[in-house]
Design brief:
Elements (H helix, E strand, L loop, with lengths): L2 E4 L5 H4 L10 H14 L1 H12 L13 H11 L1 H19 L6 E3 L7 E9 L2 E5 L8 H14 L3 E5 L9 H10 L3 E3 L3 H10 L9 E3 L4 H10 L4 E2 L7 E6 L5 H12 L6 E6 L2 H15 L5 H11 L1 E4 L3 H11 L3 E5 L15 E4 L5 H6 L25 E9 L1 H17 L3 H8 L5
Parallel strand pairs: 1-11, 4-5, 4-7, 5-6, 7-8, 9-10, 9-12, 10-11, 12-13
Antiparallel strand pairs: 2-3, 3-14
Helix pairs in contact: 2-3, 2-8, 2-9, 4-7, 5-6, 5-7, 6-7, 8-9, 10-11, 15-16
């Protein structure tokens, strides 16, 4: 049964408690990373046989073949392919607006000086796509399409197989999104392969995509060797709802995240005690209807909560403190409150915009900061797949104009060679 609490009558430590993974996996992951770094493909094949039941002795190969792609489209069928193509078009249209341009600064008040910034795509991006209890083709689209728009030359995807076969809907989504190569390996070992490279899998510049605790820990440990998007925690949804909301809808939205993971967090913040009690009862009714009831019930019982606030402004302030991955603003006139929201991964406005729209179809990215990190980080975007370098140009006359200032600054730091690199060009 979900907990109902009155804001101001319980400790803030309970109100603002965030989900955290308690499993200690650091040593296991470190061992896997070291194994793959040293033994390459041989280590990957051992793990594929151990975890996926895929043996090289039976003809298993790490890379997905063209024949496997063709078979995948045949298996998925035109109806679902059409749905994914329409979703991809929405995602593409949204992310194309994120493209940044290079710039040059050349002003009249600084003659002979030119400065600029170049925006360039990464050479190689590595995408991790889960393939455990459920397959997520939506994650393929959300990770690969921004990389493609950014201009990444090689988009490499890794995903677990079952007995050597990748879920066909994953392969179809990858082809729609423009993935370059796909390898049938998952877990920490897949992250190691992308970070260090093996005989078959190329080393990449950045790894993106969600995974289990072992994948998250592996990304954490290889950071610095390679860039990563974020350390993703369990899924989260926070619904801010007024007393006019339909409790059936609110409960359904909360369960849409609870069914992900036993450690997922579903929170309702409302200004109505009546709605709070109705949603609590509705959650119990709908839980019994879910195929993934055991997972969703554990999430609701352990990490779900309903908070009753004095008004909607307080409710939004609570949401800002929690900084949820997904925030639904299920109120009349939601745009009146939008400027009050400071910390959230993705915001869904109004009573007819459930979070599932963002998971699959609306267009904004669904790879989002979790565990309160929306306080300082952002959704996955085209920016994640580019880097920038800056440049400067001075004529000799322009250098002479600033030589004394630069030399004085350098000398103040005790770096006389820095100063001399300026003055030697100016005849001093």
């Amino acid at each position: 049964m979900i907990k109902i609490m009155k804001y101001g009558q319980v400790p803030n430590s309970e109100i603002f408690a965030r989900v955290s993974e308690k499993t200690n996996v650091e040593d296991v992951v470190a061992g896997i990373l070291a194994d793959v770094k040293e033994n390459g493909d041989a280590a990957l094949l051992r793990y594929c046989e151990k975890f996926d039941g895929a043996s090289a002795a039976d003809g298993f190969t790490l890379e997905v073949s063209e024949a496997e792609f063709e078979a995948a489209f045949e298996a998925v069928g035109p109806k679902l392919v059409g749905v994914m193509e329409r979703a991809a078009a929405n995602i593409r249209a949204f992310h194309e607006k994120q493209v940044r341009n290079s710039f040059i600064v050349n002003t009249d008040d600084r003659p002979g000086v030119l400065m600029g910034q170049k925006v360039v795509p990464l050479d190689k991006a590595g995408l991790y796509v889960p393939g455990g209890t459920a397959a997520y083709p939506s994650s393929v689209l959300m990770n690969a399409i921004p990389a493609k728009i950014a201009g990444v030359k090689e988009i490499v995807m890794v995903t677990p197989s079952k007995g050597g076969t990748v879920n066909p809907v994953i392969l179809a989504a990858a082809r729609i999104a423009g993935v370059t190569r796909i390898f049938k390996v998952g877990g920490a070992q897949a992250i190691a392969a992308l970070a260090f490279g093996t005989e078959t899998i190329p080393r990449v510049d950045k790894i993106t995509g969600p995974g289990n605790a072992y994948v998250a820990e592996a990304k954490k440990q290889v950071f610095g060797q390679v860039a990563i998007d974020m350390i993703a925690g369990p899924s989260e949804i926070l619904v801010v709802a007024d007393g006019t909301c339909n409790p059936e809808y609110v409960a359904a939205d909360m369960l849409s995240q609870a069914e992900h993971d036993k450690m997922a967090s579903a929170v309702l913040v409302t200004d109505s005690q009546t709605l709070a009690e109705a949603v609590s009862a509705e959650l119990e009714r709908q839980l019994s209807l879910l195929p993934r009831e055991e997972i969703a019930r554990a999430s609701i019982d352990d990490y779900g909560k309903i908070i009753v606030a004095d008004d909607l402004h307080v409710a939004i302030e609570i949401a800002n403190e929690i900084a949820p991955e997904h925030l639904e603003l299920c109120v009349d006139n939601p745009f009146d409150y939008l400027d009050e929201i400071r910390h959230a991964g993705s915001v869904f406005l109004g009573k007819n915009c459930p979070e599932a729209l963002g998971d699959y179809f609306a267009g904004p990215n669904h790879t989002l900061p979790t565990s309160g990190t929306a306080r300082f980080s952002s959704p996955l975007s085209v920016d994640d797949f580019v880097k920038k370098y800056q440049y400067s140009y001075y004529t000799l006359d322009a250098l002479k104009q600033v030589a004394e200032d630069v030399a004085a600054f350098a000398e103040s730091e005790g770096l006389s060679a820095h100063a001399r690199s300026i003055t030697v060009r100016c005849g001093k």
